[in-house]
Every structure is written in C-alpha cells, then in structure tokens.
C-alpha cells in the first residue's frame, strides 16, 4: 500500500475526527460521503478503513485514512476517498448502521 498522503495529521482532534468517520463506515454499508469542497461520492464500503501512518510530500509522518467505495451495479467502478476530506457521512442503507 502506498505510504504517501497529501495531508497527514498528528494532533489528537484531527485523529479523533478520522476515527469518528471510520466508526460511521460499516463494511458493505451504502453511504454518501459529503466532501469539504461541496462535492459528494456514493458507494458501498468495500473494506472497513482504519487510520494509518503516512508521510506527506515534506516527509513528515502523520495519520490519515482512506476508504474504498464500490458500486455493485457497476463492478469495474471503485473509488478511494481520503477521509480527512469528508465533511459528513450519510447512510443510504439504514440496516447497515453499526455493523462492522
């Protein structure tokens, strides 16, 4: 797995925010990720994300996380999303909330 990230975090508040987003992303949950730039991305969580150690372009070590989304109706489609860019998670499949 690539160990480079555009942004990395070391402060507790940012790491907690990432962990909070991860808690909202159950495996196989159908979600819409509303991004900080106003865009959105929807799909099914392929694998439960976790915080990981990355290095930024300046070789600073820190934490970030990403999630891979897929669409069952378009098997060849997938998208990796950096969680630090997610403003909120909306659940489209309410039965999946809380499962991991």
Can you tell me about this structure?
- It is globular, with a radius of gyration of 13 Å.
- The chain is built from one helix and seven strands.
- The protein has a single domain, classed as Protein of unknown function (DUF3247) (SH3 type barrels).
- By secondary structure, the protein is mainly beta.
- The strands form two sheets. Strands 6-5-2-1-7 form a five-stranded antiparallel beta sheet, with no helix packed on it. Strands 3-4 form a two-stranded antiparallel ribbon.
Q: Using the 3D structure, state the CATH architecture.
A: Roll
* Whole-angstrom Rg: 13 Å
* Helical fraction: 10-25%
Please outline the major beta sheet.
5 strands, antiparallel
Uncertain parts: none
Number of domains: 1
Instruction: Let me know the CATH homologous superfamily.
Output: Protein of unknown function (DUF3247)
Number of helices: 1
Q: Approximately how much beta-strand content do the residues carry?
A: 35-45%
CATH T-level topology: SH3 type barrels
Number of strands: 7
- The SS-based structural class is mainly beta
Pattern of helices and strands: HEEEEEEE
Determine and state the CATH class. Answer: Mainly Beta
Sum up the structure in keywords.
about 10% helix, mainly beta, about 100 residues, 7 strands, 5-stranded antiparallel beta sheet, two-stranded antiparallel sheet, SH3 type barrels
């Amino acid at each position: 797995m690539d160990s480079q990230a555009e942004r990395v975090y070391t402060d507790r508040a940012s790491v907690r925010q990432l962990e909070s987003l991860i808690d909202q992303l159950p495996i196989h949950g159908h979600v819409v990720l509303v991004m900080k730039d106003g865009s959105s991305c929807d799909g099914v969580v392929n694998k439960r994300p976790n915080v990981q150690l990355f290095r930024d372009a300046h070789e600073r070590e820190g934490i970030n996380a990403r999630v891979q989304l897929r669409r069952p109706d378009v098997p060849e489609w997938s998208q990796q999303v950096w969680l630090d860019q997610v403003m909120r998670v909306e659940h489209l499949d309410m039965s999946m909330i809380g499962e991991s």
